[in-house]
């Protein structure tokens, strides 16, 4: 796609933990040869590290309704799926001007940008998952459908939990111990405030993961980080970043996600085409709620858990700006 003819930059968005489910992308895997090729390529890299096939785990061993929450499987599954989606979009001549990640999605964005190789990205997300599965205490994460201001309104019920991310004006995420999150959800139910437990068993974006900082940074120090070929927008920093390393990735896992502020900062300056490459379309939904009424920015999902993913890709391609082939 000829970028000189387009008024709006394209942003590929990559979601993280909480957006995954068994059979995500299965329709494409069975019907889109190029998507299958890229997923199989990723599987060849992941298989020796997992000692089993990620494709089998994702598509053949479990029903779609089962909770998909084992970190050593969900980490590489999200990376491989979203990377493969990015490749088929690029092959459709939909080229990103920026990549943007949410939590684990920042690592995926770094792989797509070229700052970290695919093989090293897969190795990193599997090995850090092994650290957490071996050493971290079980915990939980909860999405709350209300303004983040209710934390100040009801400080007692939130006292043992931490703000983990701000999605949009009426959606945020908290983390805490399994018991504390259960208690919080019970109190929210009493107040008729909607919430949903995420399929994540660790308290990312809080001080509860702090004991694992040294092990994570020692792991990350062995990887080769290079300058990105595609500019990276960080939803941790709420701005474009120039340097990726293990310290940045640790902050991504340890500190709260500022997704809402990141999108607001972007659309205050310019108009964009936001494309969600996550499996559930959650980031596209967040962006829709963030965009001002008079914004010329638009947002699209690629796939979701409800099917018709091939049709969604065709609609996305048809929605892209028409290339003007006239000479300048």
From TrEMBL:
Q: Which keywords label this protein?
A: Acyltransferase, Transferase
Q: Which residues form the signal peptide?
A: none
Which protein, by its recorded name, is this? Acyltransferase domain-containing protein
InterPro entries in the record, alphabetically? Answer: Ac_transferase_dom_sf, Acyl_transferase_dom, Acyl_Trfase/lysoPLipase, Malonyl_transacylase_ACP-bd, Polyketide_Synthase
Spell out the Pfam families in the cross-references. Answer: Acyl_transf_1
Query: Domain named Malonyl-CoA:ACP transacylase (MAT): which ranges?
Result: 13-316
Example GO molecular function: acyltransferase activity
Key word Acyltransferase present: yes
SMART domains named in the record: PKS_AT
């Amino acid at each position: 796609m000829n970028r000189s003819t387009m008024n709006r930059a394209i942003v590929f968005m990559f979601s993280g933990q909480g957006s995954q489910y068994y059979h995500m992308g299965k329709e494409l895997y069975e019907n889109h040869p190029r998507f299958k090729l890229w997923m199989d390529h990723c599987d060849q890299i992941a298989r020796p590290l997992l000692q089993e096939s990620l494709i089998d785990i994702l598509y053949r061993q479990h029903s779609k309704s089962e909770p998909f929450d084992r970190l050593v499987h969900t980490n590489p599954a999200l990376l491989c799926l979203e990377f493969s989606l990015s490749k088929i979009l690029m092959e459709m001549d939909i080229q990103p001007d920026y990549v943007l990640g949410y939590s684990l999605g920042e690592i995926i964005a770094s792989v797509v940008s070229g700052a970290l190789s695919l093989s090293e990205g897969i190795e990193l997300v599997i090995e850090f998952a092994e650290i957490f599965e071996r050493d971290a205490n079980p915990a939980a994460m909860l999405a709350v459908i209300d303004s983040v201001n209710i934390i100040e309104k009801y400080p007692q019920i939130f006292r043992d939990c931490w703000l983990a991310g701000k999605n949009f004006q009426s959606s945020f995420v908290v983390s805490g111990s399994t018991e504390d999150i259960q208690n919080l959800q019970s109190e929210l139910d009493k107040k008729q405030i909607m919430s949903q437990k995420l399929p994540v068993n660790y308290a990312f974006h809080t001080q509860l993961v702090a004991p694992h900082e040294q092990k994570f940074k020692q792991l990350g120090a062995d990887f080769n980080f290079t300058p990105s070929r595609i500019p990276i927008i960080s939803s941790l920093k709420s701005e474009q970043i120039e340097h990726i390393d293990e310290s940045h990735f640790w902050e991504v896992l340890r500190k709260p996600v500022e997704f809402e502020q990141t999108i607001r900062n972007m659309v205050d300056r310019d108009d964009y085409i936001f494309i969600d490459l996550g499996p559930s379309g959650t980031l596209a939904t967040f962006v829709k709620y963030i965009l001002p009424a008079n914004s010329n920015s638009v947002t699209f999902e690629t796939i979701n858990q409800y099917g018709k993913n091939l049709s969604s890709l065709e609609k996305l391609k048809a929605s892209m700006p028409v290339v003007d082939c006239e000479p300048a």
